[in-house]
Amino acid sequence: MNHLPEPIRVVQLPDGTYTYADQLPTPVHSAAPQVVHQHIHQAPPDRTVQRIALGSGIGAGTVAAGVYFGPLLVGALTAIAANLALLAFLAAVLSWGVVTVVKSIGGPEGKAAAKTLSRTRKRGR
After folding, report:
1. Integer Cα distance of 56 and 40 in angstroms
2. What are the pLDDT digits (tens) for 6-33?
3. Which of the residues 40, 92, 97, 98 has an alpha carbon 20 to 30 A from that of 69?
4. Residues of 47-74 as b/e, b for ≥16 C-beta within 10 angstroms?
5. Would you state the pLDDT for residue 105?
6. Which residues contact 104 (CB under 8 A, 6 or more apart)?
7. What is the DSSP string of 71-89?
8. Are 46 and 33 contacting, i.e. CB atoms less than 8 angstroms apart?
9. CA-to-CA distance for 98 and 120, rounded, in angstroms?
10. pTM of the model
């Protein structure tokens, strides 16, 4: 049982150029019209990336690894970015809460401390 697809053949056209056999134009027949059974929800296989990669000399294992690990890497980086955004939001909310509590509970001393802190931040820029 061989579950591998047929290898793609390269053919030479009458004008001397080469092309892949699966990209040849189909001849037009003037016979009776054919019934086309097409699955609209299925996209045709796009082998452009594999052809470029295999044509540049890297092996099929590298192509398979890129196909497998590429989406995993995108998913992992997205998850990391979402976590960092959540942590930044929490830090902003917590610091706002601390400043608000210090201002309200501390009385004049708390307001002076908050003012000093804001001046220090402005000078640091």
Report:
1. 33
2. 667 778 888 888 777 776 666 655 666 6
3. 40
4. eeebeebeeeeeeeeebeeeeeeeeeee
5. 82
6. 110
7. HHHHHHHHHHHHHHHHHHH
8. no
9. 17
10. 0.41
